[in-house]
Amino acid sequence: MTTALPLTGREIRLRTAPDGLPRPEHFTVSATPLPSRPGPGHVLVRNQHFLVFPGLRTLIGGEAAGVPLPPLRPGDALFGPAVGEVVAAGDGSALRPGDAVLHLLGWREYAVVAAADCTPLGERLPAPVDHLSQGSSAYGALTRLAELAPGETVFITGAAGAVGSLAGQIARLLGAGRVIGSTGSPAKAERLRTELGYDAVVLRGAPASVAEQLADAAPEGIDVTLDLVGGEQLTAAVGASRPGARIALVGALSGQFSPDGDGGSAPASVDTFRLVNQGITLRGYRGADHPDAADEWKDRFGAWLRAGAIRFPYTRIAGMDRAPEALQGLFDGRHFGAVVVEL
């Protein structure tokens, strides 16, 4: 018996361009027609989970120059990493109904995707949702740029986010002697210490400055910084760095979470004299420059998950209608770990 394919599917579109941070009123849920059968080389995927990620601010804000993703204009459907099940396959596709895949057309119930743009999930990770983890960039930055050595002290900014909540665990598994994180929430700081094993947490907005707290948390200095935020926290990291320290830049959340600007810049004051005098390196991490890192990460992540050595922290949001609210919650700092919408 052949199951009839849906005639329409719902998707979330940008309704109007926001002035500042996007809010739920800037989005709309629309029904869109689906093909009776995918075209050659394409598949129809029923999405099961998709990721809510801060880079959408940059794409919506129109400052996407140099970003390897297209900008989002009013009327466009949102997109992002998603996992789902193939329900129909066009001619010439190696995928078949029932296959579980990862692709970039989230924010919709059903996606028509080129088979070549789908990655079969396989058995490398225990659960489909694990494929939405954002640990690959943290792993790549710590192993390729920072070349973290056993016993070193690591500082991770934005430690309670999608990348940071994995980065501290990864640093420990790679042999870090002391792991320090930063966050803006006392409740998150407690979870970082008790659930994820951070040795100390710098609290943004506390009476003491980030630099003062970092000096107390690492009196002998920082060897490696994984910076996801920029701004004041990057400034403090440079000031606390030991001779020969390595700073890997992975994100720019201070710009993407700011109500000012369009999410495409994150200025920071950096003491270049200290960089030179202390021999500190500061480099940006791009996954495309290290294509082997993602594959290596997936193997190690799967092994660590099965051994119970690592956790994938994420906030589960039930139902696509709540996705715009989940995005607002991301900008407001309400979530811990990654934010995943479950359909």
Automatic annotation (TrEMBL):
Molecular function as annotated in GO: oxidoreductase activity, acting on the CH-CH group of donors, NAD or NADP as acceptor
Keywords, ordered alphabetically: Oxidoreductase
Residue ranges of domain Enoyl reductase (ER) in the record: 20-341
Keyword Oxidoreductase: yes
SMART domains, alphabetized: PKS_ER
Pfam families membership: ADH_N_2, ADH_zinc_N
Domain of life, source organism: Bacteria
Presence of the UniProt keyword Oxidoreductase in the record: yes
PANTHER family, per database record: PROSTAGLANDIN REDUCTASE (PTHR43205), PROSTAGLANDIN REDUCTASE 1 (PTHR43205:SF7)
Protein name: NADP-dependent oxidoreductase
Provenance organism: Streptomyces beijiangensis
